Structure formats: C-alpha cells, structure tokens
Amino acid sequence: MVIERFPKWGDYMRILDLVEFQPDKRQKCHKELRFCQFYRKAKGTNNDWIFGQGAGHMSVKTFYKLIHKATTNKQHYGTFEGAFGKLIDK
Predict the structure, then answer these.
(1) What are residue 75's phi and psi, to 5 degrees?
(2) 11-54 confidence digits (pLDDT tens)
(3) CA angle at residue 18 from 16 to 24, to 5 degrees?
(4) What dihedral do alpha carbons 18, 21, 27, 28 form, nearest 10°?
(5) Which residues pair with 82 in a beta bridge?
(6) Are the C-beta atoms of residues 11 and 40 closer than 8 Å to each other?
C-alpha cells in the first residue's frame, strides 16, 4: 500500500493485492494481481476513505514502489481488509 497526497484534490491509497482463486471443476487454483485504490477528500479523516470506482490511475513512481514492495517483501501482499486495517489502526 502506498498513499499519495494531493493537497488540493485529496489522498489516494494505492493497493497491490495478491488474489488467490480457489480451484473449481474447470480451473486450477491460480493467482492474480489486483490494483485498486481508495480516495478521501482533502483534509479528510481515516473514516472518510471510499473505494475508488473507475479506472485506476497512478504515477509511474507509485507503480514502481508497489511492485518493489511486492517483489522484495512478501508480507506486503495481503488483502483489502489487511491493508486498510493497518491504516485505520494507526
């Protein structure tokens, strides 16, 4: 998870999520990467985060940060609840 702050527009929480799909009759178990984001208005609180609908977008620098975290430290993989919970618990 990486948070980008834009004073005029608000904050974006970018998340790279490892999703493991369980096998069914037609497919084997497989894993995919999911990029998602949450948004809150400028000067918002931790209770103001909303799921970012629509096309995900981020700077190239943020994309590289997420990929670097995911490939160098496996504990950065998690779930929506895990990434979001870490932020709320602070």
Answers:
(1) -70, -10
(2) 999 888 878 888 888 878 877 778 888 999 999 999 999 998 76
(3) 145
(4) 70
(5) none
(6) yes
Evaluate whether 54 touches 77 at the Cβ level (below 8 Å): no
Please say whether the beta carbons of 50 and 38 come within 8 A.
Answer: yes
Structural domain containing residue 75: 2-88
Put simply, whether the predicted model's pTM sits higher than 0.90 gets the answer no
User: How many independent structural domains does the chain possess?
Assistant: 1
Determine the residue type at 41.
K
The answer to whether the beta carbons of residues 6 and 12 sit under 8 Å apart is: yes
Give the integer Cα–Cα distance in Å for 15 and 83: 8
Which amino acid would we find at residue 18?
L
Where would I find the H helices in 1-90?
60-72, 80-88
Higher-confidence residue of 44 and 78: namely 44
